[in-house]
Amino acid sequence: MIQNYVDLLTCVTAFGDTDSADHFKTLLAEKSDIMIKLGDLMHSCKTVVDHLIKQGHFKSTQKFKKIVGINTEDHDDATKHPFSGFLSSITCLICNISYLKSTPIEDHFLSDTGFQHLGLILYNTKLDIDNPVLREWSILFVKNITSWSD
Predict the structure, then answer these.
(1) CA distances, 103 to each of 51, 66, 67, 94, 149 (Å)
(2) Rounded to whole angstroms, how far apart are CA atoms 14 and 132?
(3) Is the dihedral of CA 130, 132, 138, 144 positive or negative?
(4) Between the CA of residue 22 and those of 25, 26, 59, 97, 107, what are the distances in Å?
């Protein structure tokens, strides 16, 4: 259900050249707590996935071996990512909101919590098979922030 809301907000903010999308981005950006909530949501998803990998319920290495052509005999549900595509949607929404210059967004990423969220987004610049466009959205976010930040 949360993914539906994130997808809806992402679609509404996706059209950068329209006045209504820019107005909506400005409204969301002025509510700096949305960036805190989205960053916390990303952190929670990563923590859950790390825990599942540690407990052996999710095996990302098997999925990678399957894609590069290494034979794996055990193809079970452990290779299914629990948040497939969701991190990409969250990062896309963060990227769309950060497109316009915003003092609350800049202040958030200069705070201690914002540094943690920025680190998490930078961590996502690696290739993730389960979230195929996560890397691109993360890089675009860094471009957005660095293009207007003082």
Answers:
(1) 35, 45, 43, 15, 9
(2) 18
(3) negative
(4) 5, 6, 41, 9, 20
Number of structural domains in the chain = 1
Written as one string, the DSSP assignment of 11-67 is: HHH--TTSHHHHHHHHHHHH-THHHHHHHHHHHHHHHHHHHHHHHTS--HHHHHHHH
Let me know the angle formed at the C-alpha of 94 by 92 and 100, rounded to the nearest 5 degrees.
110
Single pTM value for the model: 0.71
Name the residue type at position 8: L
- Domain that residue 75 falls in: 2-148
10-60 pLDDT tens trace: 776 666 556 666 777 777 767 657 778 888 888 888 888 777 778 776 665
Q: What's the half-sphere exposure (Cβ side, CA atoms, 13 Å) at 63?
A: 16
